[in-house]
Specification:
By secondary structure, the chain is α+β, with helices and mostly antiparallel strands. Helix content is 20%, strand content 50%. A hairpin with a 2-residue loop joins strand 1 and strand 2.
């Protein structure tokens, strides 16, 4: 499953999840009239933060992490599971 597919399977709005052995509060939203997505997450213990935008362009998806590496946000989304 691609990064964009995994991100698209996450619920819109705010939800709780687990990644890398931590509990997170996560918010996912559409931006740019649905041509992009934003994800912001904060570890509930305050130890980490994730922020990214993914733009769906004619030339392909463009991932723009906010002041962190693409590897970090890709690993987070790959490991993220939604809490019940």
């Amino acid at each position: 499953m691609s990064f964009a597919q995994k991100l698209a399977k996450l619920p819109l709005g705010t939800f709780r999840g687990q990644a890398h052995g931590k509990d997170w509060i996560v918010t996912r939203a559409h931006v740019a009239n649905g041509k992009g997505e934003k994800l912001v997450a904060e570890a509930l213990d305050g130890s980490d933060y994730i922020s990214l935008n993914l733009y769906h362009l004619a030339a392909g998806d463009l991932l723009k992490p906010c002041e962190m590496s693409q590897a970090k946000v890709r690993a987070f989304v790959a490991d993220l599971t939604v809490s019940d």
